[in-house]
Amino acid sequence: MATTIWFQELFGQWGCLIALALALIINLPIFIWARLKHHLTLWGSIVAGFFGISYWLINPVFYLGLFTFFISSSFLTRYHKSVKEPFLDKFEKGGERDASQVLANGLAGFLFIVGYLLTILFSNNFLISNAFIYGFIAAIGTVNADTWATEIGIVSKDQPYWILNLKKKVERGTSGGVSAKGTAAAFLGSLVIGSLILLVESFWHNPIHSESSWQLLLFIAVAIVCGFLGSIIDSFFGATIQGFFECTVCQKGTEKKTHCSQPTKLIRGSKNFRNDHVNFWSSFIAGLLAFGFGCFAYLL
């Protein structure tokens, strides 16, 4: 084994059991609260609990990123809820996140931190382990940016523009629509994730290895930008390959396959490429961009 995991360094021989106990103590109340408040469905709570415990055990810094996304997105979903009501019919799913939504938002980040874990366990290559961390920041930054952009942009009084044609305006809540407030919120959402991890890293010096201050700042800044770009990719996918339908009864546009108790008609994209797919692939691609930069920059 190339190095020890954080809980072994802190707690010694029984570190794994202590870390697991802490994970349960911290996570169980949060996800019970989320279930009772209808932020998550039952299966959504179970999947989120798995992610929460796993992220914590791999490194609490990763858990901090996930926790920040979950809490901020849960509260923003309730932000000006009455104003959002007329537009919710466009979305495939409501504010109570199910298992597939949790997977879509947490899986890309999970893949990067598993890559980080395997690297530190079986290799001394800190170049690769650090790159996986930057990939994680970008992946979680993307889903946080996308959520902030959606939840804040939809309550803006400004009508959004179509990402494929910025001279064309679309209805609020339309996949592929972008607005000034939503775009600013997206950047802020990614910035919050990266900044929090930078702050913790500055005090704890874990999990990023052998970085000078300027390198650390540069790479996390790039990961933040990649997270923001991921939200743009999300909008692009929403405007192109995500399935978008029209109700055959009321003629409203929607992401739902059924509306007014009738099957809807596909008007663009693929009927099998849904919002959950958009969220996963945009965050995964953003993570790959940051991961690739982290590897490439060290080779220069």
Explained architecture:
Strand 1 (161-162) and strand 2 (165-169) form a beta hairpin. This protein has ten helices and eight strands. The strands form three sheets. A three-stranded antiparallel β-sheet has the order 2-1-3. The mean pLDDT is 88. The protein has helices at 6-11, 15-36, 42-58, 60-78, 81-84, 99-122, 126-153, 180-204, 213-240, 275-299, and strands spanning 161-162, 165-169, 177-178, 244-246, 253-254, 258-259, 262-263, 265-268. It is mostly helical and 300 residues long. It has one domain (6-299).
Sketch the topology as an H/E string, one letter per element.
HHHHHHHEEEHHEEEEEH
Tally of separate domains = 1
Overall geometric form: globular
What is the number of helices?
10
Total number of strands: 8
What fraction of residues sit in β-strands?
Answer: 5-15%
Radius of gyration: 20 Å
* Unreliable segments of 5+ consecutive residues: none
Overall pLDDT level: 88
First-last Cα distance: 28 Å
- Give the neighbour order of strands across the main sheet: 2-1-3
Biggest beta sheet attributes: 3 strands, antiparallel
Assign the structural class, choosing from mainly alpha, mainly beta, alpha/beta, alpha+beta, or little secondary structure. mainly alpha
How helical, in percent, are the residues?
55-70%
